[in-house]
Write a structure and sequence with these properties.
Bound molecules: adenosine monophosphate
Distance between the termini: 7 Å
Radius of gyration: 16 Å
Order of helices and strands: EHEHHHEHEHHEH
Number of helices: 8
Structural class: alpha/beta
Largest sheet: 5 strands, parallel
Strand order of the largest sheet: 2-3-1-4-5
Helix content: 55-70%
Number of strands: 5
């Protein structure tokens, strides 16, 4: 890593792959900012802001919020001083257009994206995990139909982002079926 005091990371993986848990681990271990677009959108919706009202139907349907909405939100977070010590992106970029915008924003800040990591988990296991999560977390996008839509969207729109990034960022693929601690260990190893 070019600058060991600073980690600029992106964590990928379909819904249920453990991104949120592992991003929190990286935050506590490395002191980086955890930037989770899904969480930010759910907060906006809960607060009933204009943005929250705009994005509500997308969240409930498991569809992607328009790129320009997300990019404006993320630009603000990346430019804030809290991201100076490094960040882990969780759930962004989800489209190639978002990845291009990320490249521009980081270019303007004169910061690289150091590493992209992908948590890989087979679909049947994801469906099992998300159905269990639906019982404890009360998320309206963890119903069977919406789960299916979110996994389809990941396959169609987010997997191509990894091919796009691979031309200029190292992409580490991590087996997300292992125990949480083991996955964390592999992630730390990849971060180096
Ligand atoms: P997540 O918590 O990351 O699974 O995100 C929950 C929902 O928020 C997704 O199903 C999308 O509707 C929306 N969302 C989160 N991040 C993005 C993004 N980068 N682009 C578009 N929509 C997003």
């Amino acid at each position: 890593m070019a600058d060991s005091a600073r980690y600029n990371l992106a964590l990928f993986g379909p819904a249920g792959s453990g991104k949120g848990t592992q991003a929190e681990f990286l935050k506590s271990k490395l002191g980086v900012e955890h930037i989770a677009t899904g969480e930010m959108l759910r907060e906006e919706r809960a607060r009933g802001t204009d943005l929250g009202q705009t994005v509500g139907t997308y969240l409930a349907a498991g569809r992607l919020v328009p790129d320009e909405v997300i990019v404006a939100m993320i630009r603000h977070r990346l430019e804030a001083p809290q991201a100076d010590a490094g960040f882990v992106l969780d759930g962004f970029p989800r489209t190639v257009a978002q990845a291009r915008a990320l490249r521009d924003v980081l270019g303007n800040l004169d910061r690289p994206l150091d590493l992209a990591m992908v948590l890989e988990v087979p679909t049947e296991e994801l469906i099992k995990r998300l159905s269990n999560r639906a019982k404890v977390e009360d998320r309206d996008d963890d119903t069977p139909e919406v789960i299916e839509e979110r996994l389809r969207v990941y396959h169609d729109q987010t997997e191509p982002v990894l091919d796009y990034l691979a031309d200029f960022v190292q992409v580490a693929r991590i087996d997300g079926t292992k125990q949480v601690d083991e996955v964390s260990r592999e992630i730390l190893q990849a971060v180096g």
